[in-house]
Amino acid sequence: MTDSTGSTGSTDVADAPAPSRHPLALLRDPATIRVRCAAVLRSVEDNNSANFRLNRDALGAVADRVAALTLRRFPDLRIPYHSRWRHFEAGGIDRKAELDSLLQGRDRAERARVHFDLTVVSVLLDAGAGPRWHYTESKVLDPLAMPAQHHGSDDLLALLDRAARPKAAAEAEADDAPAPTVAAAAAADDPAAAEPAALAPPTFGADRPTYTRSEGLGVASFRAFMAGAFSSHRDDALRCDAAALQAVDAAALRGIFQATPSNPMVGLEGRAGLISRLGEALHAEAARDGLPARPGLLYDRITDHGRRSEVSAAEVLGELLRVFAPIWKGGSLVQGLPAGDVWPHRWAGDATGSGEHNPTTAGWVPFHKLSQWLCYSLLEPLQWAGVTVTGLDALTGLPEYRNGGLLLDGGVIVPRNPRDLERTWKAGDEFIVEWRALTVALLDELAALVRQRLGRTAEQLPLACVLEGGTWAAGREIAKELRSDGAPPVKIDSDGTIF
Q1: CA–CA separation, 315 and 309 (whole Å)
Q2: Residue 109, burial from CB neighbour count under 10 angstroms (0-12, 13-18, 19+)
């Protein structure tokens, strides 16, 4: 495997395309994220904020906690990246090996496209699910989750019949019975249509593991991918394509995530819209040069069809933000353009990562949490394809529930009014924007302290590994210590698309 943090590699990185001068290009630069978040941090340090004050004396204790937890989790300090692929390992199960065994015979580039397909869709489905939701792992998927191309005429009739039943009866059946296979749904009316026993997909039995939160979302999306829920090609389940993604709706996601009235999941409609718009964006992007309309086209774009063996993390993020810009309907509009996870704050200023001042983007703080999470999650698929990724620490810490919750629960970020933690906020509220900006800035400081405690340099322990080692796990740990349900300290009205 190539070293993602090494400074050596092929010389073709010099042939990388020049940065785009898109109107929002400066807000897509991770260096601008740091500059704008630092501006907010300075204003809070100067006691200008009515929302928060800082208690830097608590930062050392938080670093102690993160370092100790990192050593417990990774005694040899061989820490993987903070990545969606960690959630695919939930329960100690090597699900990647299961996938790769089915990819034998495909060349390296196609395997990379499949890994990209899975990663992109799974990450975009990874917003908060809510504290009451859970997923019981099974290789049997509700037929409502499958694209129409996978159903025969009898299957479709059975599904229409099911949809026509009284709602209460259908919900009771969904709560009490295991999800049938497509063939089993058709066989309810026509026993002759039953699937041959030899072809029936296996299940994990009565003791199937159950997962919640991010692990549950990861495992559920992995199982859906393996079953072909995102492929319009009935003979090729292991892919995502625009046709199948555009057809995803809330009913399909209820089937994928086993969501019912007694197992509620937050933001189903928002997630469905996001995935459907992803299909539309991929269809438009593929039309540029005839590539297949699937997330895997990003592999070809980033590596110039496999000809580049070295890319920078900032380049990868920039390509993600460019291609997926049209899908972010839940974020902000800047200069009339969809900017995604970018929000106004009075102290953001107009400085940029390039050192210039840009009045047209003044007052906006970019975060791009979900896109950066996706970028982190694509590092390993690129490495598996033989591509070195440089400049990992150009990316920032992720300003979300667990990292930001760690700093709140650890007493570093202190609300001036404790009752502010009792109310529910919107993603664009100043309180939330400020908290997230402080989180980004303080995670850099925290990472330096953790490295000191572990005796590692930034090259040996990049931010992607500090997060995994880690701040994210420590945020979850302290939340469980302070609240019986392990919920984060901040409540946000989420539509399932931002964070």
Answers
A1: 13
A2: middle
Interior CA angle at 254 toward 248 and 258, to 5°?
140
Angle at 399 between CA 395 and CA 400, to 5 degrees: 130
DSSP label of 351: B
CA 30 vs CA 50, 347, 388, 390, 453: distances in Å:
27, 18, 19, 14, 27
Instruction: Please name every residue paired with 53 in a beta bridge, in sequence order, or none if there are none.
Output: 414
The answer to whether the beta carbons of residues 39 and 351 sit under 8 Å apart is yes
The 3-state DSSP class for residue 492 equals strand
Pair 133, 266: CB distance under 8 Å: yes
Decide: helix, strand or coil at residue 496.
coil
Q: 97 CB contacts (<8 Å, ≥6 apart)?
A: none
Backbone angles phi, psi at 170, to 5 degrees: -65, -40
Q: What are the residues whose beta carbons fall under 8 Å from the beta carbon of 95, sequence distance 6 or more?
A: 88, 89, 219, 222
Report pLDDT digits (tens) over 338-375: 899 999 999 999 999 988 899 999 999 999 999 999 99
- Look up residue 129 and give its two tokens: 């699910």
Contact between 39 and 402 under an 8 Å Cβ cutoff? The reply is no
Q: For helices 59-73 and 472-482, give the axis angle rounded to 10 degrees.
A: 110
User: pTM for this one?
Assistant: 0.84
pLDDT of 76 over the 80 cut: yes
Count the neighbouring beta carbons within 10 Å of the beta carbon of residue 261: 11
The full DSSP string for 148-194 is GGG--HHHHHHHHHHHHS-HHHHHHHHHHSPPPPHHHHHHTT-GGGP
Is 283 within 8 Å of 242 (Cβ atoms)? yes
Amino acid at 76: D
Q: What is the DSSP letter of 143?
A: G
CA distance 126 to 256: 13
Q: How far apart are alpha carbons 438 and 54 in whole angstroms? A: 9
* Chain Cα centroid distance, residue 49: 31
Helix (H) or strand (E) holding 388, with range, is strand 388-390
Calculate helix-pair angle for 30-45, 430-454, nearest 10 degrees: 100
Radius of gyration of the chain (CA): 23
